[in-house]
Here is the input.
Amino acid sequence: MRAALLNEDQRDALQEITNIGMGRAGDSIARMFDEFVELTVPRILTLQGAHLPDKMAEMVGCKDVSGVRQAFHGQLRGEALVIYDHQHGNQLAELFDYEPDSTDGSESELLLDVTNVLVGACLGGMAEQLKVDIGFSAPSLMGNHGAVTDLLRVGQIETKQVLFVEVNFKLERRSFSCHLIILMSDTQIAMVERAIDAFIERF
Here is the structure.
């Protein structure tokens, strides 16, 4: 997929749709933690798949991370990744009244639960705006306490080109934050364009 395949109107519409989805995800997390959530402006890029690990490492900016992946399927198909750094994993444990140094199994369960809420709310909101049906696979752990580039290699993300949507969630009174990244392959671009064009025509 080339960047030119999304024209300016389509990109603006996707930005609006993503903002709505991210807002819903942020609200879900705020209610879960009883904390105000700050959101960054979503970043929408088209990338060569080979460049994805380095771009992810640049955006996340930390060396020790854990990652969870969750596939979505239906009229739109792709994968959502949520990247947490180790320090923020400890913050997450504290929010749920777990001991910060609790077992890896407990930490992994927390990461899976939070990912499920984030991805379901965000992509569910986006699908509602686009009027498409999607379902979700169960989230799975990509890896704990490793480099982003290592997690992606373990995850075996293999596609020539990707549509890359990224946002950073941060709790106002805590250091906890995470990156939610939505990936769709070049084979999905025609469906994405049709859904966006239909969204534009309704307004």
